[in-house]
Amino acid sequence: MPRAAGAEGPVPNLVLFHDSPELIGTPFYLMDYLEGRVFSDAQIPGVSPDERRALYLSVAETLARLHAVDPVAVGLGDFGRSCGYFQRQVRRWSGQLDGSGLPDLDDLRTLRDHIVAEMPADDGAVSIAHGDFRIGNMMFHPTQPRVIAVLDWELSTIGHLLADLGFCCMPWNTSSDEYGGILDLDAAALGIPTEAEFVAAYHAHLPQVGPLTAFHKAFALFRFAVIFVGIAERAQAGVAADANAANLAPLARRFAIRALEILQRAKYRKDE
Predict the structure, then answer these.
(1) For residue 213, which of 172, 174, 262 has the smallest C-alpha distance?
(2) 25: phi > 0 → left, psi -120 to 50 → alpha, else beta; which?
(3) 3-class DSSP state for residue 14?
(4) Which of 3, 10, 98, 156 is 20 to 30 Å from the Cα of 106, by its Cα?
(5) Alpha helices in 137-248 (DSSP H)
(6) What span, in angstroms and rounded, lies between the C-alpha atoms of 180 and 259?
């Protein structure tokens, strides 16, 4: 999503939008070329602990800045529905899960049932929701520890702010062999802030947003797990774009187990 005229936020400026397929066979747009750094790994290799911490906190600030944008004010009032985000999302991903023929998905179905039972009432909080907000989709300044562009907007819509924040917190709840998490690493030695510090940095820039709960984190893991199911099915059918797509199938179950652990820990604390 390049930035339209008058919009705020770290996205490239829109240079041209051509809505007819006649020129190259499809509608297309051009955006500014930005020079920067992209890290595919949540460990952010090759930087000092102090810079790594600053990079993470810049991600938190960037997400808050995105969520502070009024969709109507920037012409995105019709970009998605303004209520019932979690209900719609769970219904959508449940449909894909129920239609899957892959084995070993019982834990994911159990997670889905828990999420449905734990779903909070719709509080009406909406924003531009990126849908895939993570380190790998940030471009950082070439030398400074700050985000200069958010990339890969294919899953963006109007949605709940805490869905993005929960998704962004997945590295703290998954291990390094589970799509590059940091749960099994010495994050403090790496300079990575704790999940609580990251969430607090987000709320420092957007204090009116409600608390991040176990539900939001479990929902993020559920949603990504079902995405893994879809990728694995495409690999099985021989139409997956990623050469490693077949290896993602076991991650669906592992993400489900991580999410169930989050919900169980929250229940235990509540019962104390």
Answers:
(1) 262
(2) left
(3) strand
(4) 156
(5) 161-168, 187-190, 195-205, 214-236
(6) 16
The Cα–Cα gap between 2 and 20 comes to: 18
Which amino acid, one-letter code, is at 49? P
Query: b/e per residue, 97-121, with b = 16+ CB within 10 A?
Result: beebebeebebbeebbebbeeeeee
Find out whether 34 and 10 touch, Cβ atoms under 8 Å.
Answer: no
pTM: 0.91
Q: Are strands 157-159 and 147-150 parallel, antiparallel or unpaired?
A: unpaired
Q: Which residues contact 122 (CB under 8 A, 6 or more apart)?
A: 83, 84, 85, 86, 87
**When comparing pLDDT for 114 and 235, which is higher?**
114
Rounded (5°) CA angle 185-189-195: 65
Are the CB atoms for 131 and 79 separated by under 8 Å? no
Q: Specify which of 5-19, 47-61, 96-110 reaches the highest per-range mean pLDDT.
A: 47-61
Report residue 248's pLDDT band, with 50, 70 and 90 as the boundaries.
confident
**Pair of tokens at residue 6:** 């008058």
User: pLDDT tens for residues 134-158?
Assistant: 999 999 999 999 999 999 999 999 9
pLDDT of residue 12: 82
